[in-house]
Amino acid sequence: MLEIGPRNIDLGITDWKKDISDNASVSVLQERIDLAEKFQKDPFEDFSDLDIIKWFLYKKEHLDQHHDKSLRTIKEYERELKIFVQQLITFSSEINLDIVTIIEGSLFKSLGSRHIRRYQEWLSEKSPYVKKKGTYSPATLARKTTIIKNFLSFLYEVKYIEEPIYKGLKIATVRKDDRPNKDLGPKEVIQLLDYFKDINHPIVFAIIHVLTTTGLRNEEFCNLKVEDIQYDSINEQPYLNVLGKGNKRRQIPLKEKCVDSIKMFRHARGLPKIAVSDKKSFLFTTNTGKSYTPSYLSQFLTKKIKKTELAFLNHRTSPIGPHTFRHAFAIISYINGVDIYKIMRSLGHEKIETTMIYLEKVFERERHAIQEWNSEVFGNYV
Q1: What domains sit in the chain, N to C, each tagged with a CATH number?
Q2: Which residues of 329-366 are buried (b: 16+ CB within 10 A; e: fewer)?
Q3: What is the pLDDT of residues 232-272, one digit of tens each?
Q4: Most-buried pick from 145, 174, 181, 369 (CB within 10 A)?
C-alpha cells in the first residue's frame, strides 16, 4: 500500500500560490484543448491537476465576460480548493488515504468516493481548525462542501476522472436554527446611529447609515467609486449604480440624509467634494486613503459596535457587522409595508427564498398564535 504524501506525488503545491492565480494561461489551455479536438483526442488528456483547476476557475463560458464567475467567486473557490488539495496531501495518514497506485501522476484521478467521504469527516471532526477553535459552523461546512462538490462534479462531467467521486460527500445543509442571528430592527439601528452621533464619530455613523438605507452588500460598499453616484433627472434624485453579485447591476436611490452622511464621511476623511473628485476614485476610504476590503470593514465595524456596550447587544448571539445592516434594510422595509418582491429586487436577490431567510424570524414571531390573543378572552393577563 502506498501512502500518498508530498514526496509521493509532484503537484507543485509550493508554486500554486502564484501559478493557480495566473489566469493569463487560460488562453494557452484553450489552445491545447483546440489542438486535442483537431486530432480527435481527449480534450484534457495532457492536463495536470493544476491545469484542470485553472481551467475550472477561469474558463470562459459567455461572450459577455460579465456573466462568467465574478472575481470574488473565483478567489473564494481558489482558496478553498488550495486548502482541499494541501490538506489531502499534508494529512493523508490522518485522513486514511489508502491509495495503492497514483494514476498518471494525478491526485484527483487516484481518489475514490471513500477518500472524499473520509476527508469530509476528518475536516468536520479532526482537522487543525477544529482542534484549535472548535467545530466549523454549519454554514461554513455547507459552503466548503458545495465548492468541493462543484469541482469534483466538473471533473467527472468533462471526463478528467472516470468515477463520480463527489457522491462520497455527505449532504451538508444549514437549518434555520443553525443560522446566526443577524436580525436588527429600526430601534437598534437608531440606538447605534444616536450613539455614534453623540460621540461625534462621523465615520462609523455614515457607514451604518449608508448600509442600512441602501441594503448594500459588504463588498459592494467597499467597491463603490465616485462615478457610481449618478442622478435620476426624472425623479430628481441621486442613486448608486451598483455592480453586484453575479456581475449584475442595480440602481439604488439615495435619500437626502444618506447623501449628507456620505458627504460627512468624505469631509471627515479629508477627501475632496464629490463634484471635483476623480470619478474613478473610491467613494469610501480608510484613514490611510485606501479602499476598504470586505474583511477589514467587517472587523472595523464589528469592533467599534462592540465597544459601545449598548444594552441590546447583551441579548445577541452573534456580532453585528456590515451584513447585519443588509438584514436591517429588509426588516425595516417589511415593517414599513414594502412588498417582499420589491425587497427582493432591491437587495439584488435572484430568488424570493433568499429574501425570506432574511425575514423568516420576523414572520415566525409575527404569525405566532399569541399575537391574536385579546383581553376579552384572557382578561388583564394578555
Answers
A1: 13-177 (no CATH), 186-366 (1.10.443.10)
A2: bbbbbbeeeeebeebbebbbbeeeeebebbbebbeeee
A3: 888 889 999 998 887 789 999 999 999 999 999 999 999 99
A4: 145
